[in-house]
Amino acid sequence: MIMDRVISHLRNSGFTVYKAGNNSDIERKPCVVIGMAGYTQPWAPLPAREYTLSMILINNRSDSEMERSLVETLFRLDCGEQCDFFNITDYSAALDDDDWVTTWTLRYIER
């Protein structure tokens, strides 16, 4: 699955990464949280599937260099032979309590 591939790639590149859904696991900051935001099969009956992932960087400060490094690392991901499209479609950043939260929306189409 693409989410596991993204998590593994980022961990192998030195980032602390968690799957979304269990916030009690988040122990280290800065860290990245990856979650599945959506799944469709928009071209039925064709077998292509579209996944939307949410990638969140949680940090105790704004860090544009870390954000840049994360995005560059993500684009070095080999998403496999079945990958038709992989891109970042949205970006936002905001202060949430004491944490700086940067969110990217990733779009992945697989045939």
How would you describe this structure to a colleague?
The protein is α+β, with helices and mostly antiparallel strands and 111 residues long. Helices cover 21% and strands 45% of the residues. It has two helices and five strands; from the N terminus they run αβββαββ. The protein has a five-stranded mixed β-sheet with strand order 1-2-3-5-4, with helices on one face. The protein is elongated, with a radius of gyration of 14 Å. The protein starts with a helix and ends with a strand. The mean pLDDT is 85.
Question: Would you spell out the secondary-structure blueprint of this structure?
Answer:
Elements: H1 2-12, E1 17-19, E2 31-40, E3 49-59, H2 64-75, E4 83-96, E5 99-110
Parallel strand pairs: 1-2
Antiparallel strand pairs: 2-3, 3-5, 4-5
What would you say about this model in short?
This protein is 21% helix and 45% strand.
Keywords:
alpha+beta, 111 residues
Percent of residues in β-strands? over 45%
The total beta strand count reads: 5
Count of helix runs: 2
Strand order of the largest sheet: 1-2-3-5-4
The percent range for helix content is 10-25%
